[in-house]
Design a protein that fits this description.
The chain has 12 helices and 12 strands. Helices cover about 40% and strands about 10% of the residues. It is globular and about 65 Å long. The chain is α/β, with parallel strands linked by helices. α1 packs antiparallel against α8, α2 packs parallel to α8 and α9 packs parallel to α12. The longest helix is centred in the last third of the chain and has 22 residues. Bound molecules: pyridoxal-5'-phosphate.
Length: about 375
């Protein structure tokens, strides 16, 4: 039996989500833009999904716009906030997801924006006083800082960033793809302007997500071509995806406290077992800190060794799916830009394990045993 410990990449679909989607794959196939009964039924399902999501996030349905996932939502908010508000300066970090990082580099290359990187501390957390300095020097900027890092798990205090952005009249976008469905977001309380989500990160289907755009900070559409999504995103909606997204979020909210407790215990178990079996083991970023990192992610830093190059491949051969990323810049392997930014000189190995409600404590025990054997340490 294979063990899946790569839930930050994607999560298995919850069977109840699949059941909710099924009718919209078979009998309820109408185009939601059609005004006849087939269309109206499907339109109602989309609007009820939007309402459900808005209730959970404490915002209004009009502030939720469905997209094809996190990447499109990040691209849309960044590009359109810049063009709508004539923004020239963007404050971000070197460890954002490529959906943000590549989008910003592209805009910088075209001369549309000037990009400013905020300093990070030695654990990879944003230096808030430097952020304030940058905001002071560049008022009306776009700030794009992720809520939680998908590789090292560090969690940002978005409430604090939102307050700073309010003070310096900046537009605040946060890539919340790794936190929606895992933490509660009260959008009346957090004065953020745009955030993004992808259903497949919380046991929903792939290829569907949403963006939240605060109603008093509207942006122009990014995908043109149709009046769908209140003129905000052209294209026939992914109806069963949207229905599945809302169902997955509903389940995630209903079971959140229980799952957080359970998954945190898996992560704590792995930290403890790794510490006792692998001498010199460390954890990248702040991922061993259960209070300031995603409870779903643990990024293991392994002592320098010739075995490190092949670790992921060998874990896979032994039936364990995990993910990698190393600061290696030898050119052979495409290293992680996150680890390269934080540990430019490091030759240590990196394995990201990420957990879900479907993992069992035995999965952790087997993974640690296999990893310690691959590191040539008798368990
Ligand atoms: C932090 C973060 N942002 C954006 C994305 C992209 O989301 P999607 O796969 O839905 O395009 C991911 C998924 O890998 C992610 O982890």
């Amino acid at each position: 039996m294979r063990i899946y410990l790569d839930n930050a990449a994607t999560t298995p679909l919850d069977p109840d989500v699949f059941e909710a989607m099924k009718p919209f794959m078979l009998e309820d196939f109408g185009n939601p833009s059609s005004t006849h009964a087939h269309g109206r039924k499907v339109r109602a399902a989309i609007e009820s999904a939007r309402k459900k999501i808005a209730e959970l996030l404490n915002c209004t349905p009009g502030e939720i716009i469905f997209t094809s996932g996190g990447t499109e939502a990040d691209n849309a908010i960044i590009n359109s906030s810049i063009s709508t508000y004539g923004i020239r300066h963007v404050i971000s970090s070197p460890i954002e997801h490529h959906a943000v990082e590549s989008t910003l580099h592209n805009l910088q290359k075209q001369g549309v924006i000037q990009l400013h990187h905020v300093s990070l501390d030695n654990k990879g957390h944003v230096d808030m006083s430097h952020l304030e300095e940058l905001l002071k020097a560049n008022p009306h900027a776009l700030v794009s800082l992720m809520h939680a890092n998908n590789e090292i798990g560090n969690v940002l205090d978005i409430e604090q960033v939102a307050s700073l952005c309010e003070k310096y009249t900046a537009y605040f976008h946060s890539d919340t793809v790794q936190t929606i469905g895992h933490y509660r977001h009260d959008l009346q309380k957090i004065k953020i302007h745009g955030l993004t989500a992808a259903a497949h990160k919380f046991h929903g289907p792939k290829g569907v997500g949403f963006m939240f755009i605060r109603k008093d900070k509207k942006i122009q559409p990014f995908v043109h071509g149709g009046a769908q999504e209140r003129n905000m995103r052209g294209g026939t909606e992914n109806v069963y995806g949207i229905v599945g997204l809302a169902k997955a979020l509903e389940i995630a909210y209903r079971e959140m406290d229980e799952h957080e407790r359970y998954i945190k215990s898996l992560k704590a178990r792995m930290i403890e077992k790794l510490r006792t079996t692998i001498p010199g083991v460390e954890f990248h970023g702040d991922s061993e800190n259960l209070d300031r990192s995603l409870y779903t992610v643990l990024n293991v830093s392994l002592p320098e060794s010739d075995e490190n190059e092949m670790l992921l491949f060998n874990l896979d051969l032994q039936g364990i799916s995990a993910s990698g990323g190393s600061a290696c810049s030898s050119g052979a392997a495409q290293g992680s830009h996150v680890l390269a930014a934080l540990y430019p000189q490091s030759k240590r190995g990196a394995i990201r394990f990420s957990f879900s409600k479907y993992n069992k404590p035995e999965d952790i025990d087997v993974a640690v045993k296999v990893l310690s054997e691959l590191c040539k340490i008798p368990a």
